[in-house]
Design a protein that fits this description.
The structure holds two protein chains of two kinds.
Chain A lengths: L2 E5 L3 E2 L5 E8 L9 E7 L6 E7 L4 E3 L7 E6 L4 E6 L8 E8 L9 E4 L3 E5 L2
Parallel strand pairs in A: 2-11
Antiparallel strand pairs in A: 1-3, 3-8, 4-5, 4-9, 5-6, 7-8, 9-10, 9-11
Chain B lengths: L3 E4 L2 E4 L5 E7 L8 E6 L6 E5 L3 E2 L7 E6 L2 E6 L9 E6 L5 E2 L3 E5 L1
Parallel strand pairs in B: 2-11
Antiparallel strand pairs in B: 1-3, 3-8, 4-5, 4-9, 5-6, 7-8, 9-10, 9-11
Classes of the chains: A mainly beta, B mainly beta.
Chain lengths: ~120, ~110
């Protein structure tokens, strides 16, 4: 059974770069049909899509975050990574990784999710 | 950006009752590219419905999605205790956006 697990520092200082890793187990990140996603949820608020990557390296980003986001993939470790630069308190959120099978071009519903990891931006 | 507006914000019902949740898009969604998720406190969302009306694997048939264009509904025919949660809609017609959620609470 596919499992996704987020990992990261938990606490980041303002203006620094946030780095999170999602490790995929029970399946290969290189499965040709799959795309891999990052989504976040500020405390008590709704979900915000951050970006998507295919193992080939194709990426799609939320236009509102695009200037600060980089998503990459490490197929040798079945991991994909999120980097978000110049963080502020507004970036404090639970960060989820997820998977989808494309249904609308490269987009599709998210059928598997990690449990999420809380990342706090504070000095 | 496609904006999704969910209503009501909170729905108070009793087990056994029928729930109808609404999601309205600011633009027509191509081919009904709309999904519904259930989220419980401290958990990740769970996919319920995709393509506006197709149930995801393992989802009970009391969950039904309907609608097209800009107006979509999620109906839960007979509420079970485990159905009380937050429900979110998501469009994947043009990148992704989520609705703000409907909280389904026990009356």
């Amino acid at each position: 059974q596919l499992q996704l697990q987020e990992s990261g520092p938990g606490l980041v200082k303002p203006s620094e770069t946030l780095s999170l890793t999602c490790t995929v187990s029970g399946g290969s990140i290189s499965g040709s049909s799959y795309y891999w996603d990052w989504v976040r949820q500020p405390p008590g608020k709704g979900l915000e899509w951050i970006g998507t990557i295919h193992y080939s390296g194709s990426t799609y980003y939320n236009p509102s975050l695009k200037s600060r986001v980089t998503i990459s993939v490490d197929t040798s470790k079945d991991q994909f990574l999120l980097k978000l630069s110049s963080v502020t308190a507004a970036d404090t959120a639970v960060y989820f990784c997820a998977r989808h099978i494309p249904a609308a071009g490269a987009m599709g519903p998210f059928d598997s999710w990690g449990q999420g990891t809380l990342l706090t931006v504070s000095s | 950006e496609i904006v999704l507006t969910q209503s009501p914000g909170t729905l108070s019902l009793s087990p056994g009752e029928r729930a109808t949740l609404s999601c309205r898009a600011s633009q027509i969604l191509s081919s009904s590219y709309l999904a519904w998720y259930q989220q419980k406190p401290g958990q990740a969302p769970r996919l319920l419905i995709y393509g506006a009306s197709s149930r995801a694997t393992g989802i009970p048939d009391r969950f039904r999605g309907s609608g097209s264009g800009t107006d979509f509904n999620l109906t839960i025919s007979r509420l079970e205790p485990e159905d009380f949660a937050v429900y979110l809609c998501q469009q994947y017609s043009s990148l992704y956006t989520f609705g703000q959620g409907t909280k389904l609470e026990i009356k």
